[in-house]
Amino acid sequence: MSETTVSAAPPRAGTPSGPPARWTTRARWYTALNLLGSLAVAAAAGAGSPLFVYDQRRWGFDDGTLTVMFSVYAFTLLVTLLTAGSLSDHVGRRPVMIGALLLLLVACGLHLAATSAEWVVVARAVQGISTGAAIGTFTAMVSETVPPHARGRMTQIAGTIPIGGLALGALFGGVAVAVAPAPSLAVFVPIALLVVVALGAVLLTPESSSRVAGAWRSLVPRVAVPRRVRPEFLRGAWLVSAAWMSSGLFLGLMPSLAHHTLGLDTVAASTLVFLQPAVAAVTGLAATGLAPRTSAVVGALGCAVGGILLIVGIGAASTGIVVAAALAAGIGNGLGFAAVLRPLSAAAHTHERGGLMAAIYVVAYLSYGVPALVAGQFATVFALPATAIGYAAFLAAVALVALASRAGVRTPGAGIPGPGAATPGSGVPGSGAASPRGGVPGSGAASPRGGVPGSGAFIPTPARSGGLEQEPARSGGQEPARSGGLEQGEKK
Fold first, then answer.
1. What is the helix, strand, coil percentage profile of the chain, to 5?
2. Exposure of 231 by Cβ count < 10 A (0-12 exposed, 13-18 middle, 19+ buried)?
3. pTM here?
4. CATH numbers and ranges of domains, the chain
5. pLDDT tens digit string along 81-108?
């Protein structure tokens, strides 16, 4: 992993307005409309699944072409996350979001104009680029344009929107195929209208990130994780993987399982597919006040229990047990992803946050897509129920590893030095210089008696809330000091 370089020089241009000190009517509208835009981006991706099956019946292409339609989106999305994921840290959030939303409008137009499978493949490729540019930038933008006291809660909500959007898109697409005479028109015209509204919101929202030199260099493929948060990022990757693997399992394999193993009709099968990501979204929205450690533990347990219940439910061909598995896995997804997203976002500098959010989503989408793709190949050799049982067992194992990785960690992110905090050895105040007493003032890092600074491990020495040294002022948008990589006032 490459590290995001923190320049000692001030940003060249672009003075962000900084977050509002308190909620205002304008700030609430901007936030709501930006979240709506994020929902539209994800819903456009989720709507493809039922529409492609409809297109296959209409145009008669083979299953290999159907696989290409799914995989080209994942490929272009991941390439964009790896190349342009940190671009908004250099040129600002608004330019990247405007470009991403315009590309999504182009993708909607291509879907509407498509007369063959080749056009759909092109539309999906453009859509993947748009989503890759938008998803991490939206999360960073929302977290930076809300009052400081609401940042953790809104970051969690913004992180929940993508999986909820996938669920709504899949449900909307399925209903359109079932009842609409022109399903593509019924799906992509409303999505395009939402994108236009989101585009207007982005144009009105004040810039939240200064321009920093190095935009072209940032396009070199990399996973941009600042050094001081790497231990927590690597630990959290297990939980992110378990959370998004559970959604990949239900959205990828459950449609066929519901029909062939459980014997459900189209409406019941669509509802079952929708259930897990919907529960994940609702849980993420409802549990914003839950302590990160509690979210992490319950999230990992939820994913593990969901995997185990699914094994039993498939083996017994029991719809009730599979529904229970969807509920457990949905709760695990919603809480687990939030437990990783909040402390990492809180610990990032403004000009690091876009790249860090992109890195998190690289892990998320790899975990969402790759196991489901591999399972699809196995299903051509083994029976689908046996393949799904193997996937569920793998999910449970990853979730248990995620749970074990949290052993001894009192609060996820508690050992992360916040923005401007020190990392031993750099000698530059605010960029890594160690405190003479061996710890990072106010960061939650330990003195020589307490442990390894920045390791994220349990720190016996409590954080000193008053000792955090302020980050040298950049051109606007200075973030409030944080203790331990978490916002002041956040529950621990």
1. 65, 0, 35
2. middle
3. 0.67
4. 23-204 (1.20.1250.20), 229-414 (1.20.1250.20)
5. 888 766 777 777 888 889 999 999 999 9
